[in-house]
Write a structure and sequence with these properties.
Elements (H helix, E strand, L loop, with lengths): L2 H34 L5 H5 L2 E2 L6 E2 L2 H32 L3 H16 L2 H15 L6 H25 L3 H9 L4 H29 L3 H4 L20 H10 L4 H32 L1
Antiparallel strand pairs: 1-2
Helix pairs in contact: 1-11, 3-6, 3-8, 4-6, 5-6, 6-8, 8-11, 10-11
Length: about 280
């Protein structure tokens, strides 16, 4: 078999694989949209769950606010740690052993099942630190979950900064900290925000970590960090698991998918904007 035929077979295989992925994703979106669209109205978006059993009527507004609040707290918590860790690894860590240890820890965290992180958050935050089942406990737990996603992308972004720019700054006698804060981080700002946004979308769709740390079947819009919250993934889990309302389940799933789609579109726009500036 000559190389041209091998090349065509390889191209056909990867094209078919990509097509299958597109079809599967499109089918999921269309199926959820078709079944959930009839539930979407003003009362569903801005109302609270009602009816008996709870959730069979009314809306999901507290769950929307709860999910967005959890995502914001998770992003703030994770991005602070991830950016600091990345800066240390790229600019300050001179020990290969320490570098390997930190990367090993990050990789292990990335592979930890989300329900295990939920159990960790429940034990540490809810029980030992007595934060209770709250917005803060759930946000921190989700932040631990998305920390590796942000750290890996931020480190990659920092490593891609032109070394000549950094060396020029050092040659002018500019301190390393000033170079990082005033030169490098502004250069990488769009990529970092894009990474945080994508990770936030991942956090919003997670249900296992918040089952034990933050989410309850019903709660009003949270007024403080110590309040328990409703969240869209957990509300969807309850509606399906308890057999309350399949129609409301599809509506909740559609709202969640639309929010995730908006977040991912924002991240894509930021990534494209960064590429255009290069």
């Amino acid at each position: 078999m000559n190389e041209n035929i091998k090349d065509k077979i390889f191209k056909a295989l990867v094209s078919i694989s990509a097509l299958i992925v597109i079809i599967v994703v499109a089918y999921i979106f269309i199926y959820i949209f078709k079944n959930g669209f009839k539930s979407i109205n003003k009362e569903f978006i801005f109302g609270e769950p009602k009816g008996m059993p709870l959730g069979s009527e009314g809306g999901v507004f507290p769950a929307i606010v709860g999910s967005l609040s959890l995502m914001i707290i998770a992003c703030i918590f994770a991005s602070i740690l991830a950016i600091a860790t990345s800066i240390y690894l790229v600019f300050y860590c001179d020990s290969k052993r320490m570098d390997s240890i930190i990367h090993l820890i990050v990789q292990c965290m990335a592979g930890t099942p989300s329900i295990v992180l939920g159990l960790f958050g429940y034990t540490l935050l809810v029980l030992h630190l007595k934060l209770g089942r709250s917005l803060l406990s759930g946000g921190i737990t989700l932040g631990i979950m998305i920390f590796p996603l942000i750290q890996i992308r931020v480190e990659k972004t920092l490593n891609e900064v032109d070394q000549r720019i950094i060396n020029s700054s050092y040659a002018l006698g500019v301190p390393k900290a000033y170079t990082i804060l005033k030169l490098i981080l502004p250069l990488c700002r769009v990529d970092i925000i894009s990474a945080i946004t994508l990770a936030g979308g991942f956090a919003m769709g997670a249900s296992a970590p918040i089952i034990l740390t933050a989410a309850v079947i019903f709660a009003p819009v949270p007024k403080s960090l110590s309040s328990p919250v409703m969240a869209l993934p957990f509300h969807l889990y309850v509606l399906i698991g308890e057999g309350i309302s399949l129609e409301k389940s599809y509506g909740t799933a559609l709202v969640l998918i639309i929010l995730l789609l908006i977040i991912n579109i924002i991240a894509s726009i930021l990534s494209r904007k960064r590429k255009e500036h290069r």
